[in-house]
Amino acid sequence: MVLREEGYEVVVPESLTEALEHIELHGADLFLLDSEGDDPQAAIDSLRLGCERAGPRVTTIVFTAYTVSKEQALEMGCAGVIPKPFDLDSLLSQIQRYLQLSRGQEAASSQE
Q1: pLDDT score of 40
Q2: Residues of the chain with pLDDT under 70
Q3: What are phi and psi of 62, to 5 degrees?
Q4: What is the reported pLDDT for 41?
Q5: Counting C-beta atoms within 10 Å of the first and last residue's C-beta, which end of the chain has fewer, N or C?
Q6: Model-level pTM?
Q7: Cβ of 47: how many Cβ atoms within 10 Å?
């Protein structure tokens, strides 16, 4: 997996429920949520559920081939959207940017 090769610790759960349980028990710096399936509305509903359940304790980014705007992602509780298909270099730079933003927010919160 490319993210591991880049030095990231990666957990690949079997389901959304397993991912959310992992976040609850172990935390995470970033939650990459992929939409799948043939039904666009079901995929969007799954993204919404994942973003809402992960909540503010982790920065959540969605991957999707469906049309989801940044504004819609923010309304769902996600930090952003990475549209499919994506270029690997672009993906890595976006992940790095979101991690920096997430860590900056954590530092600001701990100073309050």
Answers
A1: 66
A2: 1, 36-40, 105-112
A3: -105, 145
A4: 72
A5: C
A6: 0.73
A7: 26
The pLDDT value given to residue 16? 81
pLDDT at site 105: 61
SS (H, E, C) the chain: CHHHHCCCCCCCCCCHHHHHHHHHHHCCCEEEEECCCCCHHHHHHHHHHHHHHHHHHCEEEEEECCCCCHHHHHHHCCCEEEECCCCHHHHHHHHHHHHHHHHHHHHHHHHC
Q: How far apart, in whole angstroms, are the C-alpha atoms of residue 24 and residue 107? A: 20
CATH class of 2-104: alpha beta
Question: Domain ranges in the chain?
Answer: 2-104
- Read off the tokens for 24: 């609850």
Separation CA 86–CA 28 (nearest Å): 23
**Structure tokens, 107:** 């530092």
Contact present, 92 and 82 (Cβ < 8 Å): no
CA distance 45 to 107: 32
Measured from the Cβ of residue 64, the count of other Cβ atoms closer than 10 Å reads 19
